[in-house]
Amino acid sequence: MKGLSVSKAVTALMLAGLVLLPLYSQLSGNVFILTLFTRIVILALAAASLNLIMGFGGMMSFGHAAYLGIGGYAVGMLAQEGVGSGFIQFPVALAASAIYALVIGALSLRTRGVYFIMITLAFAQMAYYVASGLARYGGDDGLTVYKRSDFSGLIDLSNRTQFYYLCLACLFGVIFLIWRIVNSRFGLVVQGLRSNEQRMQAIGFPAKRYQLVCFVISGTMCGLAGALLANNTDFVSPAVMYWTRSGDLMVMVILGGMGTLFGPVMGAVVFLLLEEFLSQITEYWALIMGPLLLLIVLFGRGGIMGMLGRAGRG
Amino acid sequence: MLLVVEQFLNGLQFGLLLFLLAAGLTLVFGIMDLVNLAHGSLYMMGAYFAATFAAWTGSFLLGALMALGATLALGIVLEVTALRHLYGRDHLDHVLATFGLILFFNEAVRLIWGPAGLALPLPAWLTVPVPILPGIHYPAYRLAIIAVALLVALLLYLGVMRTRIGMLIRAGASNREMIGALGINIKLLYTLVFGLGAALAGLAGLMQAPILTVQIGMGENILILAFVIIVIGGIGSIRGAFLAAIFVGMIDTLGRAFLPNLLRQVLSGAAASTAAPALSSMLIYLLMAIVLVVRPEGLFPASRR
Fold first, then answer.
1. Contact B97 A294 (CB under 8 A)
2. pLDDT tens string A156-180
3. By three-state DSSP, how is residue B127 classified?
4. A231 with A149: CB under 8 angstroms?
5. Which of A23, A249, B114, B209 is found 20 to 30 A from A48 (Cα to Cα)?
6. pTM of the full predicted structure?
């Protein structure tokens, strides 16, 4: 019981920090930290969506960054074609991600284990090459989004603080949704499939259909992150979908604690802050980050959430 | 005709090169059950070692031999210090840990050799065009790659199927506890297999180096191709890797060479020239998707329990 409270306390502290961050940024006049944390919150959203299929569903997708690109390109392309309204851009971004997830999921879920990891990776690379081939939308060089999504006065995305709170609201909304999904009958079936697919099938659940729906929900959530990311950087390029980005998302999930509600958020905060911190010390930050990942895998079972739990108990 | 023969040989050469990479990957996966993303880094290190040693000794062959030894040693060190502790862990752990190794190697290379790429010049006797058919010439170096890779493939086949070590390797793949119980030093065997895989990756890297520039991240794209190959061929199967590698090499090369012209027949010129590169890059992944839909275990699944 005590172990639970340590991780809960740290989580609460982190969430309070995220909510109060714009206040600190205003008081200290540090604008950079708000930009940095907007990015962190958006990628935390992507990591949380990956956690839904990876942590709860046991589906190890190595191509999750594809949705970041699809959501981003939906916003970028519509903006380029003169459709600036966020009320159109965001639904299109979500729908495009959902359709992609449906097709990819239907094919990929025929396989399992390493094959699943590899086929999701291959499909994401395919999406990467498609984006590189879009000459009309910048191709390899990427696409500049000259105007952020317009929500007709409801919220101004060019205002840093308002945009930050929009991203944070999306993150909390998604986590709330994941919490409801995980505790619903549907979520319990998906988690049952993770532990023992054969048995669930023998009971009479159509395994693939449940997993596919879960896969599509996760992809749609990540598409939202993509749409926000394009607005944050005012730019979208194929590099967003590159496989190392999918790897980054996986690292965030594992680092924070797979299969925990707030673990991926914790993972994203720690990973990106560490990246920022190390890159300020040395240009060669990856030289430290790489072995650190290895050590985390070797010794830090259950990620930060797992360690906090053990610290509380021990 | 000339173009067709030339591109066909290019496809064969690229396929064989991919086989060298995929063979190490599939051996390590089939026997140690380890997913090694850092295999591409070993390929890169092979190329960097070769470029350095060749510049140092002034001889391409000597440099290549030294690079081969260096990647073998590097593979063994890597296995003993880090990867050995990952055996028996979840595949996800492998993916993450070796992802970390990629970051490390890319950065280490940038620190040691700098961000700019290196060139590995060929000796004069390898640059001459060789007549292969009446009126058709082909670069000697590419022929040499084909010959070396075929020789290595043959040696690999004989080594795995006909020697005592090969027998132990196959036995280790089907039942590791049993051969451990029979008094075989399984740890040493694993280190040996990993070293062999690393040397194969290094060989592929150093042979590709004179054709492309030696640069950071050169192992990453080709690694994904190698993964596609072992998935198509069936994980753990060397025969499957060989056939799939040739197949993928052909499709990739021929697609790039002929798809733009084919598309121009049906599309307007501008549309074809933008769509063709993307489509030819996608072809392989489409092929993989089709194979996995039809045969989820790959074309030649190794019989594993």
1. yes
2. 888 889 999 999 999 999 999 999 9
3. coil
4. yes
5. A23
6. 0.87
